[in-house]
């Protein structure tokens, strides 16, 4: 999977521009959070993929966040960095 920067850039969202006014670390973290939300939303909304595949991918994300990823890709590593940094509870996942 691509990095959060690549995902955000590819999305061509106005949010990327809005985030440019933040301090560097906060911007990086917000880009990661946006990319995570974007990936999860795209998985849920991908009507071309069978529902079982979408559910499996969402379950992998949920389990990875709760228990750690076996072999995390770049975005998963970035997301896992945010959880303790911002004291994000794992219960919603």
Task: Describe it.
The protein is mostly helical. The protein has one domain (4-85). The protein has helices at 4-11, 14-19, 24-45, 51-67, 74-85. Helix 1 crosses helix 3 (24-45) and helix 3 crosses helix 5. The longest helix is centred in the middle third of the chain and has 22 residues, at 24-45. The protein is globular and about 40 Å long. The two termini are 20 Å apart. The mean pLDDT is 91.
Tell me the number of structural domains: 1
Radius of gyration: 14 Å
The biggest beta sheet is recorded as: none
- Overall shape: it is globular
Q: Report, as a whole number of angstroms, the end-to-end distance.
A: 20 Å
Q: Report helical residue fraction.
A: 55-70%
Strands, total number: 0
Structure class: mainly alpha
State the low-pLDDT regions, or none.
Answer: none
Mean pLDDT: 91
Q: What's the SSE pattern?
A: HHHHH
Query: How many H/I helices?
Result: 5
